Amino acid sequence: MTMPPTVAGGPHLEPLRSMLFVPGNRQRFLEKAADLRPDAVVPDLESGVLEPEKATARQMVRAALPGLAARGHKVIVRVNSLDSPYIWDDLNAVISPHIVGVSVAKIESADQVRRLDEIITNLEHGKHLPYGHVRIIPWIESALGVIRAFEIATASSRVAAIAFGAEDFTADMGALRTADGDEILYARNHVAMAARAAHRLAIDAPYVSIADTPGLLKDSRLALQLGYKGKFAIHPSQVEEINRVFSPTAEEINQAKAKGIMPTEFIVGLDGLAVVVNPANPVGQLTIDQLADIFTGKIKNWKEVGGRDLPIVLLSREVNSGTHVYFKENVLRKGDAKSTVEFAPTALLMSSSQAIADEIAQNTGAVGYYGMGYINKTQKAVAVAKDSAGPYYTPTLENVVSKKYYISRPLMFYTNGEPKGVLKDIIDFVFSPEGQQIVKDTDFVPVK
Fold first, then answer.
1. Helix/strand/coil for 74
2. For the segment 23-63, what is each residue's pLDDT rounded down to a tens digit?
3. What burial class does residue 266 get, using C-beta atoms within 10 Å of its C-beta: 0-12 exposed, 13-18 middle, 19+ buried?
4. Kind and range of the H or E element at 409?
5. Of 204, 203, 105, 198, nearest in space to 156 by CA
6. Whole-angstrom Cα distance, residue 162 to residue 165?
7. Residue 262 zone, left/alpha/beta (φ > 0; ψ -120 to 50; rest)
8. What stretches of 259-312 show up as alpha helix (H) in DSSP?
9. Distances (CA, A) of 373 to 165, 321, 439
10. 320-332 b/e (C-beta count within 10 Å ≥ 16 → b)
């Protein structure tokens, strides 16, 4: 079978490790999504919206798109199925310069993809968008869709990825949905294989038990083993764990080098990790030694560091979080590779940075850490010094760039050797003034 050509002018979507659903009928959630950091934001007009609310949700999503795009988000709207009465209105409302694609429910044939391609092409032309601006991610959610997954993936050059819908597939099969997922394993594997054969990305179904982080990690790792390149999320707390699973580890980088693949690193931005307390807490500055003693449990009361007589409530990310590991290695262990110091057993392990931020906002005795982009008026970042002699610095853009602020980490891209062609163009764009402005607009720190 001849593969379709690459869409001319189509946006580059990778990576798509985490794709966060946002209910299209919830204004507050749409606004909050602008401050989150998945690889793609997916406003949902389909299963997350009841029929009487479809029209209202459509207008709410349309109004939210410019703001999401302005914050640097890749926006991929999930629209209703091609055979629904809503598809034309959905596409007409959301196709704009502010989105990079649409995710379409219940695709079962290549003909459906081609019909969708034709509709999108006409809308692009009418809205003066370049051909191929809007990519397609079909949902494979039925037995027929699974059998035809390769044909669906190769039906149009607009198809950037195919997504597996576990819940609807199970319902179509009349199968009992279980936690182990044995009933979906064949279909899940088949969709990943079809995507690989078609040179498309495979995106896994969301894990629906929001509070079960170990279950999310287990499910995500299985998806990775099957060949999936990313996963949908239904709650912001899932994003960081999904991103971590679908990012390369040091061991994987070494294995790649052994196979003749030469990962080339590009530091495209910086992330300052803020130490945060409630605004009512009078403590405004701490040394690295004090922070280490606080988070290991040696200092237990705020009065020991000049604050009120109030027990310290420790908040940390979970042990499998990259943020947790970085903070432990660089603050608790102070960069000593031989150190075995650990967080105090009393530390409350939170499922996400947002969960820490929410707890800080309502707990005057709490202290935690997360990326500086999460800080708002309901938390206060303390100034940090390497020692008591100072000076103390807060996590600001200027202080992170100048390396005056101690607790910061690089954000990286990897390529196989020196990038060429389109890949080089992408890397060059990231380092351009426009690309670095996007880094800044998404609350990270540009390197140029």
1. coil
2. 998 888 988 887 788 889 999 999 888 889 999 999 999 99
3. middle
4. strand 408-416
5. 198
6. 10
7. beta
8. 288-295
9. 32, 17, 11
10. ebebbebbbebbb
What is the amino acid identity at position 150?
F
User: Alpha-carbon distance 230 to 233, whole Å?
Assistant: 10
Q: Are 323 and 330 in contact (CB under 8 A)?
A: no
Structure-model confidence comparison of residues 97 and 412, the more confident one: 97
Which amino acid is present at 44?
Answer: D
CA pair distance 128, 259, nearest whole angstrom: 46
**CA-based nearest residue to 265, from 409, 432, 419, 436:** 419
| Nearest residue to 169 (alpha-carbon basis) of 153, 191, 200 | 191
pLDDT digits (tens, 9 = 90+) for 111-163: 999 999 999 999 999 999 888 889 999 999 999 999 999 999 999 989 999 99
pTM for this one?
Answer: 0.61
What distance separates the 2 farthest-apart alpha carbons in the chain? 73
Of residues 305, 277, 235, the one with CA closest to residue 362? 277
**Mean of the pLDDT values across residues 100-121?**
95
- Residue 216: strand, helix, or coil: helix
Please tell me what DSSP assigns to residue 328: I
Measured over the CA atoms of residue 125, residue 129, residue 131 and residue 134, the dihedral's sign is negative
* Burial of 395 per CB tally in 10 Å (0-12, 13-18, 19+): buried
Contact 353, 240 (CB under 8 A): yes
Give the number of other CB atoms < 10 A from CB of residue 92: 15
Phi first, then psi: give them for residue 135, nearest 5 degrees.
Answer: -90, 165
Residue 363 has pLDDT above 90, yes or no: yes
- Tens digits of per-residue pLDDT, 4-34? 333 433 455 778 899 999 999 888 898 888 7
Q: Which domains does the chain have, with CATH numbers?
A: 18-247 (3.20.20.60), 250-448 (3.40.190.10)
Rounded Cα distance between 256 and 253, Å, is: 5
CA 445, CA 448: separation in Å to the nearest integer? 9
Q: Which two tokens mark 345?
A: 């057993």
Residue 419 CB burial class (10 angstroms; 0-12, 13-18, ≥19): middle
